[in-house]
Design goal:
alpha+beta, single chain, 3 helices
């Protein structure tokens, strides 16, 4: 008998079953992802991390999961520098595209300025905002 359980606190081993199973399915379906973590860090003069980008490359794409610029660095082109660094590394890894999403209007402007284009939107995520999905071809200026 199959049982369904809904939980907000899954065990790491339970999540691994799902992740490993999906990875195996996808590898059989479309080939290996070649997934690699990609991180770009901002450090202060003492060497402490103050922000940066966290994402990964897979199937020829860079996906930026998190991009955080500290308040004192905002409006100075830091997001563009961080994205360019990640895109350069992704290109060196053989990636042909990058994608990112945001519901922050300031971040959206920064991504558009960096050459990203909108390919999808999800209204009211969160309420009163629109989650915007953007992509960029790599290897072009």
């Amino acid at each position: 008998m199959t049982m369904i359980e809904v939980t907000s606190s899954p065990l790491p081993d339970d999540l691994a079953v799902i992740g490993d199973g999906l990875s195996a399915f996808n590898t059989a379906d479309v080939g290996p992802a070649g997934r690699q973590v990609l991180t770009v860090l901002i450090r202060d003069t003492d060497g402490n991390v103050t922000g940066g980008l966290s994402g990964y490359t897979a199937w020829g794409w860079l996906f930026t999961q998190w991009l955080y610029i500290p308040d004192q660095q905002r409006g100075k082109g830091m997001a563009g520098l961080i994205l360019a660094s990640a895109e350069d590394e992704a290109t060196a890894r053989g990636c042909h595209g990058a994608w990112i999403d945001t519901f922050n209007p300031q971040a959206l402007r920064a991504y558009l300025k960096q050459g990203y284009e909108i390919f999808g939107e999800l209204p009211d995520f969160p309420a009163g905002r629109t989650r915007t999905f953007l992509r960029k071809k790599l290897g072009q200026s």
